[in-house]
Amino acid sequence: MAEENLINGVVITFFSTASAVGKTLISVNMASELAREGYSVCLLDMDLQFGDVSNYLKLNPIYTMADIQRMMQAENSDFKIYEFLTEYEHRGVAFHVLPAPLQLSEAYNIEPEIVESMVRDLQRYYDYIIVDTTSMFSTLNMRLLDLSTIVTFLGIVDFIPTIKNMKIGNDTLRSLGYDSNKIRLVLNRSDAKSQISRADVENLLEERFYHILPNDFRSASTSIKTGVPLVLSPDDSELARALRSLVSLYTNKPVEYESIAEPGDISEEKSGGWLSKLFN
Is the pTM of this model over 0.70? Predict the structure, then answer.
């Protein structure tokens, strides 16, 4: 990469206050679709203890975040972070990955200040930095949220505790004083069997979902098993089309498929609905 072509890349962070909501699958597919469209992309696995990006993509990294931190701490002025990343490539579509540490002990030693330096350094060379995080308001995650251009706050509508955590998380993000366009509320697995309606959840959150992703367990499982992101698979699933539509919302570039998301109907009486009453 030429030093004279330095840029200021967009940082898109995937965050949630519940586990198993699909952060890794969606972040991998966003990185893949952006790369397919010709952007330079780096995907960061910031689930330091149990990151799954390398497993998903069937990667065997030589260097991880722990290695890069050690090299950065050596204060070598000639250090170029992009030379130590892991490349994923599938049928001509390629992007780089900064993998999570391989050892649990290494995860505890990653310093938020160093991570911030990594992200700022990567912004100089990549159009998009995609960040997969853990489901907590940790010191590291707060630093990543501050650095982010866009925070995709993922939720699912399945159980009351999950929705409670979604509301707490959404309220907390809104209270941090970020620009109103920074936080994008996205619903995953929207048509999974549940007794709780999307409209009830939107009433509770007092906000409509920015985008809706369908429940497609079969396609998602096949993608994880093969290591081929949905958006790069010849099997053009409904979920793949919805993921492309989400990317198009972020890039403002048209996509050949219309988003399946439809604006949710929020009742004028925001306190209405049985779900809202549970939290009052």
Answer: yes
